[in-house]
C-alpha cells in the first residue's frame, strides 16, 4: 500500500493483487463524485491489467472503511432526479464494475461501513470484516429510495426480509450480526484483519485462475437467473478441460508438487 498517495482513491498493484484504496481518512472516506469516478477507473484498470489476479477493496485507515456518500455535495451534484442521473452513472460504473469484474474481489472492512461503503462491499465477491466493523444502508434517513440494481444484490446476499430490515431501519449492524445474516463472510479481530485477509488472498492465488474466474462467471450467471443448461456456461466448463491450467494441475498432482499455473490475460 502507498498511504502517502494524494488521491482520495488509488490503485496499488503488487504481487498479483490490485488494491483499490479509499484514501480520504480526514473525511472518513466519505465518497464524493470524483471518488466514484476514480473507483470506476481503478476497476477498469484491474480488469485490464494481466498482473492483477485478485482485487482487494480496502481503506488506507483501518479505523474506518467508508462513512458513505459525501452528503455535503448532494445539494449541487444530486439536488434532484435530473442532476442525480450523472451522479448515478458514476456510482453504477464503480459498483457494477466491481460486481462484473472477471477476477475475484474481496472487501476488507473495518470500522464504519455505511451507505455507499456497504454498496461497494456488497458488490464484491467476499467480505472480510474486523470485529470493529459496523454496516448499514441509510437512504431512509435522507428521504430517497435505494437503487434497484443495488437492492437486488442486497436481496441476493441476505434475502428479502433482512434486506427490508436493513433498508427500513437504516440502522448499523455490528460485525457479529452482519456475519449471522450473511452480509459479511468472516469476522476477524482488527489486529489480525490484514494478516488473515492477505493470507486468504495468497491461498486463492495458488489455485488456477481460470477455475476462479469460471466459477465466478457461472455463479453470477446462475444468481441472475441463467438456466443450468445455458450453452455459454457449459462452454466455460468444457473449455477448462482443454486449458493449460488443467494440464498443469493434473501433471503437478501426479508429480506430487505444487502447480505453477500460467496467468490469464
Tell me about this structure.
This protein is 47% helix and 15% strand. The relative contact order is 0.11. Helix 1 (33-48) runs parallel beside helix 3 (81-100). The protein folds into 2 domains: 9-204, 2-enoyl-CoA Hydratase, Chain A, domain 1, CATH 3.90.226; 208-254. The radius of gyration is 19 Å and the shape is globular. The strands form 2 sheets. It has a 6-stranded mixed beta sheet, with helices on both faces. Strands 5-7-8 form a 3-stranded mixed beta sheet. The chain has helices at residues 33-48, 74-77, 81-100, 116-123, 148-158, 160-169, 175-181, 193-205, 209-223, 231-240, 244-254; strands at residues 9-14, 17-22, 54-59, 105-109, 112-114, 126-130, 134-136, 173-174, 186-188.
Structure keywords:
265 residues, alpha/beta, 2-enoyl-CoA Hydratase, Chain A, domain 1, six-stranded mixed β-sheet, three-stranded mixed β-sheet, 15% strand
Amino acid at each position: 500500500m502507498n498511504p502517502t498517495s494524494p488521491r482520495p482513491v488509488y490503485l496499488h498493484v503488487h504481487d498479483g493483487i490490485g488494491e483499490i484504496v479509499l484514501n480520504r481518512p480526514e473525511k472518513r472516506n466519505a465518497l464524493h463524485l470524483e471518488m466514484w469516478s476514480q473507483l470506476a477507473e481503478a476497476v477498469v484498470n484491474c480488469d485490464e491489467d494481466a498482473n492483477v489476479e485478485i482485487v482487494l477493496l480496502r481503506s488506507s485507515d483501518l479505523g474506518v472503511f467508508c462513512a458513505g456518500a459525501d452528503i455535503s455535495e448532494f445539494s449541487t451534484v444530486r439536488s434532484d432526479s435530473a442532476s442525480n442521473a450523472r451522479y448515478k452513472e458514476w456510482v453504477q460504473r464503480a459498483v457494477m464494475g466491481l460486481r462484473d469484474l472477471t477476477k475475484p474481489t474481496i472487501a476488507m472492512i473495518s470500522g464504519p461501513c455505511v451507505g455507499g461503503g456497504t454498496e461497494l462491499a456488497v458488490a464484491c465477491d467476499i467480505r472480510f470484516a474486523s470485529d470493529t466493523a459496523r454496516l448499514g444502508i441509510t437512504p431512509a434517513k435522507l428521504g430517497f429510495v435505494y437503487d434497484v440494481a443495488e437492492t437486488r444484490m442486497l436481496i441476493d446476499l441476505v434475502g428479502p426480509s433482512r434486506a427490508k430490515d436493513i433498508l427500513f431501519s437504516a440502522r448499523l449492524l455490528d460485525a457479529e450480526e452482519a456475519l449471522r445474516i450473511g452480509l459479511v463472510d468472516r469476522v476477524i479481530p482488527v489486529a489480525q484483519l490484514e494478516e488473515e485477509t492477505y493470507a486468504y488472498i495468497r491461498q486463492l492465488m495458488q489455485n488456477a485462475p481460470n477455475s476462479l474466474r469460471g466459477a465466478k462467471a457461472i455463479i453470477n450467471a446462475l444468481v441472475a437467473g441463467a438456466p443450468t443448461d445455458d450453452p455459454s456456461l457449459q462452454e466455460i466448463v468444457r473449455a477448462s478441460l482443454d486449458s493449460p491450467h488443467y494440464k498443469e494441475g493434473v501433471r503437478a498432482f501426479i508429480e506430487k508438487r505444487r502447480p505453477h499455473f500460467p496467468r490469464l490475460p
